[in-house]
């Protein structure tokens, strides 16, 4: 239940381009629910610029958020003890990058993630970059990333109760309320 008494969707997928406002919007969705809130971060701080981005995300969140790092074992975190607390995962495309670069069985990792999302008691908000609206990338790894992200988004959108596309900070509901 949200703080205004309405029922929250069990699974929400929030998509958008870079700097579209998707993370801030997803955080507001979770913060409309009673705490405690869990933020599952998939980013790895490989350089100063990424460390600054992570710090900016942390600074934006008020007290009441617990953060867990899951650059690779996202399914494991989501399949953990089912408390029913609101969970935000940010972001799936960073997780996908980590899995692709680790050169592990992507199909098995994706299947485990989909299963964990399907079983998660919710509410669960997943954030991901929509990367299929641009030009065709010029190298095989980038094309594979774009294709795998598109397939992952399609599978999660089919599973989701609500899908939102953010554009210029505005949420556009594609599926659900």
Automatic annotation (TrEMBL):
<comment type="similarity">
    <text>Belongs to the CobU/CobP family.</text>
</comment>
<keyword id="KW-0418">Kinase</keyword>
<keyword id="KW-0547">Nucleotide-binding</keyword>
<keyword id="KW-0808">Transferase</keyword>
<keyword id="KW-0067">ATP-binding</keyword>
<dbReference type="Pfam" id="PF02283">
    <property type="entry name" value="CobU"/>
</dbReference>
<comment type="pathway">
    <text>Cofactor biosynthesis; adenosylcobalamin biosynthesis; adenosylcobalamin from cob(II)yrinate a,c-diamide: step 5/7.</text>
</comment>
<dbReference type="InterPro" id="IPR003203">
    <property type="entry name" value="CobU/CobP"/>
</dbReference>
<comment type="function">
    <text>Catalyzes ATP-dependent phosphorylation of adenosylcobinamide and addition of GMP to adenosylcobinamide phosphate.</text>
</comment>
<keyword id="KW-0169">Cobalamin biosynthesis</keyword>
<comment type="pathway">
    <text>Cofactor biosynthesis; adenosylcobalamin biosynthesis; adenosylcobalamin from cob(II)yrinate a,c-diamide: step 6/7.</text>
</comment>
<dbReference type="InterPro" id="IPR027417">
    <property type="entry name" value="P-loop_NTPase"/>
</dbReference>
<keyword id="KW-0342">GTP-binding</keyword>
<protein>
    <recommendedName>
        <fullName>Bifunctional adenosylcobalamin biosynthesis protein</fullName>
        <ecNumber>2.7.1.156</ecNumber>
        <ecNumber>2.7.7.62</ecNumber>
    </recommendedName>
</protein>
